Amino acid sequence: MFPPASCADLRERGHDAVHVRDCGLDASSDRAVATAAAEQRRVLVTENVKDFAHVRDLVILCVLKARLRGGGLSRRLAELIDDWARGNPEPYVGLHWPAGPSATGG
Predict the structure, then answer these.
(1) Could you tell me the residue range of the domain that residue 81 belongs to?
(2) Does 102 reside within a domain?
């Protein structure tokens, strides 16, 4: 699970971001999280690609923590998502693997 502070960083950048803890879903099944994201028309950000790869009705942003090198995981994740969102204002349903300065440490 990514840190809740990432959502705060994203909100500061103008995004409507919520963490599963904000929604009371932190102990819920992957299916429940995916259903809530779909109902709320949200992008689901996960490192848990295997368990969400089968979902076909949701925009899923796949981010591996190992790609967010250096300190400040929350900030780096927010930067990566912000970069991706600006380049994909209307993303297609399915899996997305963002790449950008935040992912490469530069």
Answers:
(1) 5-96
(2) no
Percent of the chain at pLDDT exceeding 70: 93
Q: Which of 69, 94, 74 is nearest to 1 (CA)?
A: 74
Task: State pTM to two decimals.
Answer: 0.87
Instruction: Render pLDDT for 52-72 as a digit per residue (tens, 0 to 9).
Output: 999 989 999 999 988 888 788
Phi, psi dihedrals of residue 46, rounded to the nearest 5°: -150, 155
Residues 6+ apart with CB under 8 A from 24: none
What does residue 6 show for φ and ψ, rounded to 5 degrees?
A: -60, -40
What φ, ψ does residue 96 adopt, rounded to 5°? -125, 140
Contact 57/95 with Cβ under 8 angstroms? Answer: no
Residue pair 43/37 in contact (Cβ under 8 Å)? The answer is yes
What three-state secondary structure class fits 23? coil
